[in-house]
Amino acid sequence: MPPERIPLGYIEELVDDYRKDCPLKDPCKDPNDRYSIVLAFEFKFKPTKGVDVTLERQIPDHLQPHFGEHGNYRAKGTLDHGGHWINHQRADLFLPGYDVKWELTAGGHSWTLGTKDPVP
Q1: Residues 6+ away with beta carbon under 8 Å from 102
Q2: Element (H or E) spanning 36, and its range?
Q3: pLDDT tens across 91-105, in order?
Q4: Sheet harboring 101-106: ordered strands across?
Q5: Closest Cα partner for 8 from 106, 97, 108?
Q6: Which of 18, 66, 67, 120 is the 20 to 30 Å CA partner of 28?
Q7: Which CATH number fits domain 10-23+34-114: 3.30.565, 3.40.30, 2.60.120, 2.60.40?
Q8: What does the pLDDT read at residue 115?
Q9: What is the CA radius of gyration of the chain?
Q10: Rounded to two decimals, what is the model's pTM?
Q11: Beta partners for 42?
């Protein structure tokens, strides 16, 4: 079972620096200025091949004005034989410092993951 909150360590520092350069109120428009986040998951239940997987981002209400209809995000995929799934997204939308909740679902299992509480 994964932890409720994922310790990001050095990655969090990099994304936090990026968040300062490309804040929600004024995101970077040039693709060359954007970073990406790649999340890799490995599921141990059997069988895994062909099992649907989803990852849904649920942002806090106070962030909704910055996103409009794009605040909540849902990625879908299918597990391979080894139970692997990779998700790729923009770093500024990963939002590690904003108390975002993530719901990961696969094979009838569901996990709620979170990022750290926002810095005051």
Answers
A1: 55, 56, 57, 58, 112, 113, 114, 115
A2: strand 36-42
A3: 766 666 667 788 999
A4: 73-78, 52-58, 101-106, 109-114
A5: 97
A6: 120
A7: 2.60.40
A8: 65
A9: 15
A10: 0.73
A11: 84
Do 93 and 73 meet the contact criterion of CB atoms below 8 Å apart? Answer: yes
Residues sharing a CB contact under 8 Å with residue 71, sequence separation 6 or more, in sequence order = 57, 59, 63, 64
Round to whole Å and give the CA distance between 35 and 18. 8
Q: What is the pLDDT of residues 31-90, one digit of tens each?
A: 888 777 888 889 988 899 999 999 998 888 887 887 766 677 889 999 999 999 999 877
Q: How far is residue 53's CA from residue 76's CA, in Å, rounded to a whole number?
A: 6
* First-residue to last-residue Cα distance in the chain: 30
Place of tokens 């409720």: 4
